[in-house]
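Suppose a colleague, Dr. K., hands you the sequence of a protein chain of 389 amino acids and asks what its three-dimensional shape might be. Before reaching for any lab equipment, you can write down a predicted structure in token form. Begin with the sequence itself:
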Amino acid sequence: MPRLDGMALPEDWRDGCFAARVMTKEGPSAVAVLRGAAFDMTPAFGTVSAWLNEADPVAAIRARGVPLPLDLAAALANSAHHRRNAEKPWLLAPVDLQAVKACGVTYVRSMLERVIEERCRGDASQAEAVRDEVRGIIGDDLSAVQPGSAEATRLKAALVAKGWWSQYLEVGIGPDAEIFSKCPPMASVGPGALIGVHPISHWSNPEPEAVLAVNARGEILGAMLGNDVNLRDVEGRSALLLGRAKDNNASCALGPVLRLFEPDFALEDVRDAELSLSIDGADGFRLEETGPIGAISRGLRDIVGQLIGPHHQYPDGAVLFLGTPFSPSKDRGAPGQGFTHKPGDIVRIATPRLGALVNEVARTDACPPWTFGTGALFANLAQRGLPRR
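The predicted structure, expressed as tokens, is then:
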């Protein structure tokens, strides 16, 4: 059976600046890792959210962080759910009170797959035939079409005339990005945790994505990896079922750590990165894919500008999934049935400077229930005599 052996910190983690949340015997702690040295930020701020809302979160590490004897690599290894020692530290999702938001259909490939889901009405057996039909009409190279441009408007008119306009094409090439709530604050799971697929679904997949961290002022602070687990058949039945398809127990994974921007690692480095995905099943199935983050159809700052601003605020900050460069379609069973998750799948999402986020798939009702929310966090901080802001 595949194991969670692929978990990895960023290849240059001893040279960068990172935010993490570490579970200890006392409770969760906000931890900074700067040039390989760990600092406890909890005594000064209580939460990762409050720390990252500082005017200069990186400067705050040396000014207010408490040196911490933490072996980060050992904490990551101890995060594997099946061999975790609760007496030792392990890594949680790197954020706490931030809103967890996500973009949909920001890549041509995923946009076309959403159109296919819609045309199939959630029936995976029709996917390959519909995929060929869609490509025959609109092609699969829309990467040069700028969303909201005059060219996009002309394409929309042509598709409407053919009866092929779709709500997914609207947000894929229209002026407004799709931005939705992935899960409540505190509901994300971290590296090594089980991730949940609802048993009502028979067509599900991971969505490997880069995720940006944004403070209350709308400033983009850093990036991490995320898995926006999705139920394709549920969303394909109706876009109004997006919440059911996306927000389930343990259906959002983040980590392994949040890399903060500094002069030697910036937003452009995220855009230039390549994401890799591997899935190893207990049945011997294996899938590997790669995709460039830079193939996204919208500017990263433009998307964040649509998330937060004069018309919408996030006082505790937010994290934003940017969308997936690919949706796995390799047949797992009968030809034409495509890919779907099975319990025991090991999903590995990686890029060198953000590390590797590795999780095992289980039914949502077999994953540990979410019981430690915002109220529990504040109660724990109060018990420890720590700030609650």
